[in-house]
Amino acid sequence: MNAVYLDHNATTPVADVVLEAMLPYLRQHYGNAASRQTFGTLALRAIDQAREQVAQAVGVRPVQVIFTSGGTEANNLFVAGAAACLRPSQIGVSAIEHPCIAKPAAALARQGWTCRRIAVDRDGCLDREDLEAALSHQTGIVSVMLANNETGTLQPVARAAERARSQGTVTHTDAVQALGKVPLDFGKLGVDAMTLSAHKIYGPKGAGALIVDKRLQLRPMLLGGGHERGMRSGTLNVPAIVGFGAACELAVARLADMSRRMRALRDRLEAGLQELGAVIFGARAERLPNTTYFALHGIEGETLVVEMDRAGYAVASGAACSSASPEPSATLVAMGVDAELARGAVRVSLGDSTTAAEVEGFLGSLQRTAQRLRGLAAVTA
Questions:
Q1: Is 120 a residue whose pLDDT tops 90?
Q2: Same-domain pairing of 280 and 366
């Protein structure tokens, strides 16, 4: 495939160093980490090393890392597990949460909970007044994502967590998109739990983690052999977890350089988009250095994605998990964006292999594609 990949928020290719770390555990060292013989011991040592690597990436102790199959499972484990240890009250989630937080939170209604969506402003940032209003009621749990997967907007999680915890509220952040793009420190965020995923940081799919404060009470979702200190039963996916650890180590090592290079490329991309008359969502907010979410007036986002794919550029019309939905982005609706403009939304997310030449090529192709689509619209009008 010769296409230029510009959808790194959806997933990333596995880095060479990560694949090299994984390969021995797919072939020679294939033991079950729970087995008490040489094969199992080798696998367990690899798991322990990976746990240390993940822990170091976010400034925690290895014992605080619970391995899961990915971000979705970790988010569900937190919501369902924390709620099971509390009396039903209110759960507050930001209006721009990923569905794997929003849906489990809404599902708690069947257990006597109330789900409160906390508003965001037009830039996609958490509304402080609405957070205060949400916390004025009895609130057991609050979850606010650290970086939005569509706009890239960074949220004031530390401030929200400090306010929530002063009320005795259990706090969580989905940091899946933030890891590897901005510095992460679990202690400084002040949350009780945090979600991570391997495949967003050049690691394999099928591995994630829930980082927990030692005081947090959780009820496990998966019962069985008592793996992960009883919090997540099931045979551990050793190759994927090893890859997760290696990816975390890589992410920390190149964070500063990656962030600086991505920001420069994003700034050039957005300057070119503005020359084309694009609306950039969340442009005034602090955002991830690699993410741009934009729309061109009068052009459907899905149409533009298909046409750009034909031109050799892989982008997205929103979050990969909801790409099949004909409805405008729930994130943009929450931001108060007009529905027609929201349907034109396209996300570009840059990665480690993205070059300045590819950004320029994308802009040129986008200009030609937009002119052609508008010309066709004028003919058929």
A1: yes
A2: yes
Residue 168 sits in a domain whose CATH number is 3.40.640.10
Is 7's pLDDT higher than 70? yes
CA-based radius of gyration for the chain: 21
CA distance 94 to 92: 7
- Residues 179-199, mean pLDDT to the nearest whole number: 98
Q: What are phi and psi of 39, to 5 degrees?
A: -60, -45
Q: Do 225 and 245 have their domain in common? A: yes
Residues 103 and 128 in one domain: yes
Q: Helices (DSSP H) in 225-343: which residue ranges?
A: 238-253, 255-275, 301-310, 330-334, 339-342
Residue position matching structure tokens 């971000």: 71
- Closest by CA to 339, choosing from 326, 323, 350, is 326
Q: What is the pLDDT of residues 312-353, one digit of tens each?
A: 999 999 655 555 556 899 999 999 999 999 999 999 999 999
CATH number of 368's domain: 3.90.1150.10
**Cα distance between residue 195 and residue 66, in whole Å:** 10
CA 256 centroid distance within chain: 19
| Strand 139-143 to 114-118 pairing | unpaired
Antiparallel, parallel or unpaired: β 65-68 and 208-212 = antiparallel
What is the rounded distance in angstroms from the CA atom of residue 271 to the CA atom of residue 206?
A: 37
197 and 304 in one domain? no
d(CA 126, CA 45): 41
Beta-carbon count within 10 A of 16 CB: 10
pLDDT of residue 190: 97
Q: Which two tokens stand for residue 175?
A: 């940091």
Q: Tell me the residue range of the domain where 361 lies.
A: 4-12+255-374
* Residue 137 pLDDT: 80
pTM of the model: 0.94
- State the number of CA atoms in the 13 A half-sphere of 280 facing the CB: 21
What count of other Cβ atoms lies within 10 Å of the Cβ of residue 264? 13
Separation between Cα atoms, residue 240 and residue 198, nearest integer Å: 8
Domain annotation covers residue 379: no
Residue 239 in contact with residue 47, Cβ under 8 Å?
no
Mind telling me the catalytic residues? 321
